[in-house]
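Hello forum,

I keep getting stuck at the same step: I have a sequence, I want structure tokens, and every attempt I make locally crashes halfway through. Rather than fight my setup again tonight, could one of you with a working pipeline run this one for me? It's a single chain of 156 residues.
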Amino acid sequence: MRKWHRWAYLGLAGITLGLVMPMSPSNPMGIEHARAQDKTTLSNKKRDCGKNKDCPLEAWMDKNVKSAVEAEDLKRLAVLLDEIAKLPDLYAFPKEWDEGANGWSAIAKKGAEAARAGKFSEARQSCKGCHKPYRKKFEQSDFRIKPLPKGWGKTK
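Reply #2:
Ran it on my machine without issues. Output:
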């Protein structure tokens, strides 16, 4: 390839990249523009999620946990709460969401233990114990729209 062809090709590639991702000296690869577009997409999905359709975890909770609670099926509730306790690691939640006795996993595990012990009201309290500190944080995060982790929540 002739030398001037290479330069023409590189110039054309640069123009094409500039049209796709606006570049500047402080943002040479247009990364901030791409991030902004990604955030807009996530924001639109968040707005749709919950209004027009259930979000993945919300749908799973409604289908499984809600029915176990309504039926007072303690055996099933214990299994489901054990699954819920696994979510922080599988979703890679922020560390502060799962620290200590009031962390997501600890609350779910405590509820599962209560269910196995036949203590329905204590098991039911774990739902409120988790929803109160974490529901709003979860809804405002990108975790809300993420699909459920593969293989998670497949209980009988």
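The longest helix spans residues 120-139. If your local run keeps crashing, start a new thread with the error log.
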